[in-house]
């Protein structure tokens, strides 16, 4: 009954058989549980989190009865879904070897055979040489389940955390996106209270957990804040709610690209996306409107674009929603991002 959908998949049930459900997968994923990553070309670290569809000619399917009889890893074990095992022969690493592998047969013996898959670090060097790296990421180490899931910063390396120093303590204020090594895009309402004292703000990049500091992150001073001149927070509206922050380290440097810090791509002018296009949201926001505290861990989820007509006239109105805005939400209204 019901279904477990991974990677932003949506569980739908049949009208006449309400106890039977299936997953509708976002672009880039397939499988009964949306557990297969169709775009994955490489693996990170030792490949334990690899969920791509690479295989070898001699790879045996994980649901082969002889694997079960001999006590090997197989598709019917209790934690098979978490290990990426299923009714397929794709390369996996369920036992922590140094790279993804699959079972192959040699005579009557079954053995573990390493797969010929590129490591992402090697592939990224090729991509870095080939051109811009905006929007490129490592795969998340966490298993992503619809409903707002925890994410490692490798899967959202452009996410910025903006902090404000109050009485000597750094408090999380807003999230943002790194669009250039020196610039973070964020919301103007984060700085609506004048006067703006730049020295009380810090920007963190490469941060998975708000209250944990490690060597992945980079810390910056705020050099300049440019809010949209027509933004006003008086009416509670979101028109022109956009701002740019110029960042630099104490030594004057901008962000340095790494596995945990990268820029996100900006859309082309006049880009048009169809209704129901799958989009990703991420941040450290409150998980419920009435929550007092922000989520300590970076969270991400998938939402669908909603047409301007439907957004204006079915959900809101044509005063609060303008053509300068993008309207999006979860089809089940269980996950979202808001001010």
UniProtKB/TrEMBL annotation:
In this chain the Kringle domain maps to 41-120
Q: What is its EC number?
A: 3.4.21.73
Does the keyword field hold Amino-acid biosynthesis?
no
Domain called EGF-like: residue spans = 1-35
Where would you find this protein in the cell? Secreted
Which molecular function term from Gene Ontology is one that the record holds?
serine-type endopeptidase activity
Q: Which UniProt keywords are listed?
A: Disulfide bond, EGF-like domain, Hydrolase, Kringle, Plasminogen activation, Protease, Secreted, Serine protease, Signal, Zymogen
> What is a biological process (GO) this protein takes part in?
regulation of cell adhesion mediated by integrin
What are the GO cellular component annotations?
Answer: extracellular space
Residues covered by the Peptidase S1 domain: 145-339
Q: What class of enzyme is it?
A: hydrolase
Give each disulfide bond as a residue pair. Answer: 25-34
Query: Catalysed reaction(s)?
Result: Specific cleavage of Arg-|-Val bond in plasminogen to form plasmin
Cited function: Specifically cleaves the zymogen plasminogen to form the active enzyme plasmin.
| Protein name (database record) | Urokinase-type plasminogen activator
Q: Which species does the entry assign this protein to?
A: Oxylabes madagascariensis (white-throated Oxylabes)
For this protein's source organism, the top of the classification is: Eukaryota, Metazoa, Chordata, Craniata, Vertebrata
């Amino acid at each position: 009954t019901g279904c477990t959908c991974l990677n932003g998949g949506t569980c739908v049930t049949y009208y006449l058989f309400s106890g039977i459900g299936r997953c509708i997968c976002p672009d880039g994923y397939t499988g009964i549980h949306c557990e297969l990553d169709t775009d994955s070309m490489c693996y990170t670290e030792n490949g334990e989190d690899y969920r791509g569809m690479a295989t070898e000619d001699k790879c045996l399917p994980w649901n082969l009865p002889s694997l079960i009889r001999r006590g090997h890893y197989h598709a019917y074990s209790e934690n098979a879904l978490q290990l990426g095992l299923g009714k397929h022969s794709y390369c996996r690493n369920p036992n922590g070897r140094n790279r993804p592998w699959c079972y192959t047969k040699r005579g009557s013996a079954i053995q573990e055979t390493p797969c010929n898959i590129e490591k992402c670090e090697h592939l990224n060097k090729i991509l870095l040489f080939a051109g811009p790296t905006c929007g490129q990421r490592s795969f998340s180490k966490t298993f992503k389940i619809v409903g707002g899931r925890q994410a490692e910063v490798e899967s959202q390396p452009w996410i910025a955390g903006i902090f404000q120093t109050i009485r000597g303590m750094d408090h999380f204020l807003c999230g943002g996106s790194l669009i250039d090594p020196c610039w973070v895009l964020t919301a103007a309402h984060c700085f609506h209270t004048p006067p703006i004292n730049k020295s009380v703000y810090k920007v963190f990049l490469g941060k998975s957990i708000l209250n944990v500091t490690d060597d992945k992150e980079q810390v910056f001073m705020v050099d300049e804040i440019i809010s949209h001149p027509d933004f006003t927070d008086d009416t509670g509206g979101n028109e022109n709610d956009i701002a740019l922050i110029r960042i630099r380290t104490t030594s004057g440097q901008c962000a340095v690209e790494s596995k945990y810090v990268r820029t996100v791509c900006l859309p082309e002018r006049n880009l048009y996306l169809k209704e129901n296009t799958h989009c990703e949201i991420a941040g450290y926001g409150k998980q419920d409107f009435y929550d007092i505290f922000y989520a300590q861990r970076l969270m991400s989820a998938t939402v669908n674009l909603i047409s301007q007509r439907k957004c204006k006239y079915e959900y809101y109105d044509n005063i609060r929603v303008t053509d300068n805005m993008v309207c999006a939400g979860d089809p089940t209204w269980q996950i979202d991002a808001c001010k």
